[in-house]
Amino acid sequence: MKTLASHLAGAWTLGDGPAIPLVNPTTEDPLAWAHGRGLDLGGALRFARERGGPALRAASFAERGALCAALAKAIHGAREELIALAVANGGNTRGDAKFDIDGAAGTLAHYGELAARLGAARLLPDGEAVQIGRTARLVGQHAWAPRPGVAVVINAFNFPAWGLAEKLACALVAGMPVLCKPATATALVTHRLVEIWAAAAILPAGALQLLVGPAGDLVDHLRAPDVLAFTGSSETARALRGHPRVIAENVRCNVEADSLNAAVLAPDVELSSEAGQLFLADVARDMTQKSGQKCTAIRRVLVPAARLDDVAAALRERLAAIVVGDPAREEVRMGPLATAAQAQDVRAGIARLAAVTRDGFGGAGDVNPVGVAAGKGFFVGPVLRLTDDAGGCVAMHAHEVFGPVTTVGAYDGEPHAAAAVVALGRGGLVASCYSDDRDWLARFVGDAAGWNGRVYIGSEKIAAMSPGPGTALPQLQHGGPGRAGDGAELGGARGLALYMQRVALQGDASLLKALTS
Description:
By secondary structure, the chain is of the alpha/beta class. It has two domains: 2-257 and 488-516, 3-Layer(aba) Sandwich (Aldehyde Dehydrogenase, Chain A, domain 1), CATH 3.40.605.10; 261-472, 3-Layer(aba) Sandwich (Aldehyde Dehydrogenase, Chain A, domain 2), CATH 3.40.309.10. Helix content is 36%, strand content 21%. A seven-stranded mixed sheet has the order 16-17-18-15-14-19-20, sandwiched between helices. Helix 14 (438-448) links the parallel strand 19 (428-434) and strand 20. The longest helix has 25 residues, at 94-118. The protein is globular and about 65 Å long.
C-alpha cells in the first residue's frame, strides 16, 4: 500500500510518527498511509522564500500565467486517473469528481489567460494616477507589487483539486510561492496532482511544495510578508488567527469558513415557471452534489408561507429520484460522506434540526446504499426539514450541517423580511433569490448584499444558462463576511491582491506610467 510523501525543499520526503490511514469512504478499506511528523517545515518555507519567490518575481505576469496554463494542461492529460482517485478516496460520483477536477483546470486556465493580458509588466496599477504637484509632472500612483514571502494554503477535504487550484493560480500569477497542506483524509488527489506537476518540471524549484499529514509547527515559522490562506471550520480558523506567530508578525490571514447559504423564493414565481423550475433544480442539486459537502451548498430555503407545502412536495419528488450508493456505479447519483467523523457530525446536526422542525423527506438520513456491503460506508441520505416560521427557528440559522441536509422555512413574502431572515445566518458565501419582479429584487438585494460575498439572482431570462449558486467562478470573488470568514479569493484580478502588497508610488508621471504599464 502506498505511503504518501511530502514534497519539500525540492525532494520527496517521508515523515515519521503514527500512520494515518486514507480510506475509501464507500468500503472503509485503507487506500494509503501518511506520516506527517519529523519534517523540516521551517526549512521548506526558507526554500520557498529563497528559491521559489525570486524565480517567480523575476518573471512577468504573462510568464507566470504560462505556468498556470501548463498546470491546467497537465490536469487534462491525467483527467481520468484523477477522477478515479476522487471516486475512491473522496466518495465522489463521476459527475462530482469531474466538478472538482475540471473546476481546478478551468480556474488555472482562466488565470493563465488573465495573466497573458497583463503582459510583460511586473507591477499592477491600482486605479488612475493623481496629480500631487504644481504640474501634472508629479503624480501619485497606487500599484500592487509581489510580496517577498510564501503563501501557506491549508485546504478542506471536499475539493482536493479545485481548492488547491483557486489559491495556487492567484498566488503564482501574483508572484508568490505556495506551500500546500491538504486535508489528510482526501489527500490522494492533491498528492497525485503535485506528483504530475513535479515530474513535468513545470514550475521553478520552490514555487510549489506539498505537506501531507498534520500541520505540525508550520505556522510557527511564518513571517510578516507571508500569507496564510485557510479553508475549513470556523473553530480552526479562530485558532489560526489567534496563533501567537500570526499575531506577532501580523501575518496576512484569509479565511473561508462556515456558511449557511440561503435560497429565497419570491411570491411572483410559480413553481411551474422557468424561474420556479430553476429554483427547484438549484436546491436539489446543491443538496446532493458532492453529497452536500460544498461550502456554497444551499442550507436554508425561504419560501412564502402559502408555497411551503408545494415546495416541499416538489423537492420530495426530486430527492426520491436520487440513487445513493457506491459512487463507482453508473446509476448512483450520490455517494457517501468523506469521513466517518463527517457522517457523525451530519447525523448530530440532523438531530438538532429534528428537535425543532418536522420531516419533509429522509427522516434521520438512514439509507440502504446501492452496491455497498451491509453496515459499510459513511452514508447519509438526503434530508429535508420543514418549519412554518423561518425567522423563529433558531437551529436553522445556528449551525451548518455539512452534508445533504436543507431546511425549508416559511416567511411572509416581503423582501425586507426575507433579507432579515437571511441575515440570521451571520454572514454567508452566497445567497440566491428567485424572482422576475425587479422591484422585489432591488429591495431584497439592497438589504441582503451586506451579509453575503455573492448574490445569485435566478430569473426566467437566465434559467437556461445558469451554473447555479453552488459554483464558485474564477471571475467572481469567493468568500463572505462574518461566519463565512470575512475573506475573499478569486474574483479575476482582484484575487491577486491577497498575495500582493499595495504600494503608493510618487514621482515623474512618465516614469510611473512606464513602471506600471
